[in-house]
Design goal:
Layout (H helix, E strand, L loop, with lengths): L2 E2 L4 E5 L2 H15 L3 E2 L2 E5 L2 H6 L3 H13 L1 E4 L7 H7 L8 H9 L2 E6 L17 E4 L9 E5 L4 E7 L5 E9 L4 E5 L4 H18 L2 E6 L7 H24 L3 E5 H9 L5 E5 L1 H15 L5 E6 L5 E5 L5 H8 L9 H18 L3 H18 L2 E2 L15 E2 L2 H11 L1
Parallel strand pairs: 1-3, 2-4, 2-5, 5-16, 7-14, 12-13, 12-14, 17-18
Antiparallel strand pairs: 6-7, 6-15, 8-11, 9-10, 15-16
Helix pairs in contact: 1-13, 3-5, 6-7, 11-12, 12-13
Bound molecules: NADP nicotinamide-adenine-dinucleotide phosphate (NAP) and magnesium ion.
Length: 400
């Protein structure tokens, strides 16, 4: 008997090697066990081009409506892709479009396996990272300043009348200046997404900024987080036995390094850009990094953190077997099935998802894995065996 679903998942198909894996995961690991109910959107580049990218918008609107989506990696076109696919336009990043429509925050979390030791040996549990994806230097204006001139920060009201003016610097020699901004709304949405995710995953929240130096700007982040925590989340956190800690960013870095992991590390935009690459590398392969977009009102879109693995796809098109790691994409499905089951009150779905995750991990732990993991795998008495993607999926199915 297959597991029946109630509400469909929003299924966002994608490109290249991950599109191939997508089909295989459904065929080998999902459809034999679940009467899979999805609302299907093809975000493959050809279909985005054919629909003038409407399909991306429609899929994001479906995620708003149904609440849970699972997404395959997609190509973000550049000039070379415009030529390769004969595109009408250099369409925007689908992830950017979906993030804008859901107004969400991206959380990344490594998938830990016994046998793959993080570069930081003290890290025993995953460290999830939340990156605020709006503002700061990513939406900055900047300029060169010739020596002998002055730069000012000027604020005007709606009619253009000056409200305030501060001297940034009087330059004796040539220099540079930059103005950054953020909005209370974006910071508040970010805070709510972080607290929701932490509650959903049962993680403590650590947030660091530099409010001692940036007494208005970073301090605003600190105040908004504190206020939203106190007013909206404190009770639920205390009930769940979780804590929210704010401290200086340098203190957070030191604490994370000597921790066991197991927390949500909330980062301002730049910190998240840098630290997510550090954490991902320290835990191993891109093929083992999962990712979820959470909106402030609790809509979820699950995906792998990696891209479409183009290099492997061209080998595949040449008829070669590839050993592309499907684990992060499997986790996108298990994450979505767990959440859907939770929301619809179907415990069989999260139970199945847990079993699939366990089967995947023990397959690797017993030495069967894709090529990317081989050089990192060290476990006494186990000699790792490299499988191609399909063999690996069948090995997981055996366990399942
Ligand atoms: P990528 O697809 O993540 O691949 C980069 C390299 O990392 C691969 O060539 C491979 O290394 C390794 N790798 C990544 N995932 C792997 C996996 N599951 N198994 C084994 N190895 C893996 O990044 P990219 O090559 O920079 O980007 C390719 C396309 O993906 C681009 O068109 C980009 O726009 C898109 N992209 C999409 C998303 C998304 O949809 N979320 C994110 C990032 C990039 P080796 O070649 O050494 O084996
Ligand atoms: Mg980065």
């Amino acid at each position: 008997m297959k597991i029946e679903m109630k509400t469909p998942l929003v299924e966002m198909d994608g490109d290249e090697m991950t599109r191939v894996l997508w089909g295989w995961i459904k065929e080998i690991l999902l459809e034999p066990y679940i009467s899979l109910k999805t609302e299907y959107y093809d975000l493959g580049l050809k279909e985005r081009d054919r629909t003038d990218d409407r399909v991306t918008v429609e899929s994001a609107e479906a995620a708003r409506r149904l609440g849970v989506a699972v997404k395959c990696a997609t190509i973000t076109p550049n000039a070379a892709r415009v030529e390769e696919y004969g595109l009408k336009e250099m369409w925007k990043s689908p992830n950017g479009t979906i993030r804008r429509i859901l107004d969400g925050t991206v959380f990344r979390s490594p998938i830990l396996v016994d046998g793959i030791t993080p570069y930081v040996p003290g890290w025993k549990k995953p460290i999830a990272i939340a990156r605020h994806a709006y503002g700061d230097i990513y939406n900055a204006v900047e300029t060169k300043v010739p020596g002998g001139s002055s730069a000012y920060l000027v604020v005007c009201d709606g009619s253009g009348k000056e409200i305030s003016r501060q001297k940034v610097h009087a330059f004796s020699g040539d220099g540079i200046a930059q103005a950054v901004h953020n909005t209370d709304k974006s910071i508040s949405d970010f805070a709510r997404s972080c607290f929701n995710y932490a509650l959903s995953e049962r993680l403590d929240v650590w947030f660091g900024a530099k409010d001692t130096i940036s007494k208005v700007y970073d301090h605003r982040f600190k105040d908004i987080f504190r206020e939203i925590y106190e007013n909206e989340y404190k009770n639920s956190f205390e009930k769940a036995g979780l804590e929210f800690m704010y401290t200086l960013i340098d203190d957070v870095v030191a604490r994370v390094m000597r921790s066991e992991g197991g927390m949500l590390w909330v980062c301002k935009n730049y910190d998240g850009d840098v630290m997510s690459d550090m954490v991902a590398t320290a835990f191993g392969s891109l093929g083992m990094m999962s990712s979820v977009l959470v909106s402030p009102d609790g809509k979820y879109e699950y995906e792998a953190a990696h891209g479409t693995v183009t290099r492997h796809y061209y080998k595949y098109l040449n008829g070669e077997q590839t050993s592309t790691n499907p684990v992060a994409t499997i986790w996108a499905w298990t994450g979505a099935l767990k959440k859907r089951g939770e929301l619809d009150g179907i415990p069989a779905l999260p139970e199945f998802a847990e079993k699939l995750e366990k089967a995947t991990l023990s397959t690797v732990e017993e030495g069967f894995m894709t090529g990317d993991l081989i050089p990192m795998f060290k476990k006494e008495g186990v000699t790792p065996v490299k499988l191609n993607s399909r063999e690996f999926l069948f090995k997981i199915a055996e366990k399942l």
